[in-house]
Every structure is written in structure tokens, then in C-alpha cells.
Design goal:
By secondary structure, the protein is of the alpha+beta class. The protein contains three helices and four strands; from the N terminus they run H-E-E-E-H-H-E. The protein is 42% helix and 13% strand. The longest helix has 24 residues. The mean pLDDT is 78.
């Protein structure tokens, strides 16, 4: 849980604007769905109620596709990586079409969900 007292006002407003947009649009299968968000009354804590993720892309790469893991050939990693990159690009395109720019896209922020 992030405390908004630790970040500047512009970041707070941008995140709230993005969450409002994501709560109002139909669910995209390539995004973790945001159900609700708001302030915890009487505190500086902001909550986000979202779909449960099973992990993130950085964990997946480290655990499943490490060089020490001999169970997965590296060619399969390339195919799997291209599929995941495609899925991420569709999700990013969806939010960009809604006027949202993800300014911190990295493997640790790429969440994985079961389908």
C-alpha cells in the first residue's frame, strides 16, 4: 500500500485520474481489473481494490527461465517472451487509447494472472 504523503500532488492526481478511467471502462483481458479505489477515512492511506495477480513478469523470468533451469529450452523462452510482449503491448495500447501513459513499465510491473 502506497502512502500518498510520500509522493507529490501531481502524481496523486494522475494516479487517481487513471484509476477513475480504468474503473469506468469495460474490462480488458490484458489488464488487471480495478474494481474500486479511494481514501481510507481519517487517514492519508489510499486503497486500490483490484483483481488478484499470480505474480509478475520479473519473477516469472527469474524462476522459470533462469539459465540454471534445464527444464526449459531457451528457444521456448523466446517464443514465450514474444507472446508475453504481445500481450503487454495490447494492454498498453488499451490504456493509451484511454489517455493513460504507464510511466514505469518494467518486468516487475508486468503482472501475471491466470486465464
Amino acid at each position: 500500500m502506497r502512502r500518498f504523503a510520500q509522493i507529490n500532488t501531481d502524481e496523486i492526481l494522475n494516479e487517481i485520474r487513471a484509476l477513475n478511467i480504468l474503473c469506468a471502462v469495460p474490462q480488458c483481458p490484458y489488464l488487471i481489473h480495478v474494481f474500486d479505489h479511494g481514501w481510507v477515512p481519517g487517514t492519508d492511506i489510499y486503497f486500490v481494490d483490484m483483481e488478484r495477480a499470480s505474480g509478475n513478469l520479473a519473477m516469472y523470468i527469474r524462476e522459470v527461465h533462469s539459465l540454471e533451469n534445464k527444464n526449459y529450452p531457451h528457444l521456448w523462452f523466446a517464443e514465450d517472451g514474444l507472446r508475453m510482449l504481445w500481450d503487454v503491448s495490447i494492454g498498453l495500447r488499451f490504456i493509451h487509447d484511454k489517455g493513460i501513459v504507464h510511466r514505469d513499465m518494467k518486468p516487475a510491473n508486468g503482472t501475471l494472472k491466470s486465464v
